[in-house]
Each structure stands twice: as structure tokens, then as C-alpha cells.
Predict the structure of RNA helicase.
Amino acid sequence: WSGSLILKLSKTRASPLKLVVTSATLDGEKFSQYFDECPVLNVPGRCFPVSIAHTLEQPDSYAEEVVNICIDLHCGSPPGDVLIFMTGQDEIDKCVKKVNERICQMAA
């Protein structure tokens, strides 16, 4: 993103621009200085136990492998959450659809 673009857009609007920036790693004070000493809110984070898993081989289809892993975790692990990083909204939508289809097939 370009901070100068945001500032330029804010000057062309009739109402003042309101920008909310969230980040776990951002230097809030640096941003505050850049944006004319705007207020910074710090919300303490919480840590949760995390397990990281990697595949041994490069899958033929990343999306299909994500679906398989989600189903395997859902069926073979205690309740919990899964965080998967994907490249875009289209890929996310396809995987969600495939997971839902597979869950429905399993329930039938």
C-alpha cells in the first residue's frame, strides 16, 4: 500500500478519512508519527498452543491437499481450530466448497 496515496485521497474527500490499521507486528508509533500523531490503541494478544505440520512431498494439487488435511483433522483429532494460509479468495472459496461437499458425503 502507499501511504501517500491514502493521504492524497483523504484530501479530496469532503468528510475526513478514517483509517483503521491492525497488525500484530506493525510499529504503531512509527505509523502514528507518519499520520500526524494519530492515536494508537494497543490490544494485548493471547497465545495459544500451536502445532505446525508440513508435507514430506510437494502435492500435485495444493487445494486438494488442504481439503484432505482438513477432513483428516476433523475426523481424527479432538475439537480445535485449524489455520491454513492460502493465496487468494477464489482458492479459499473452492476449498470451503469442497470441504462442505466431502462432509455432506460422509454424513450420507
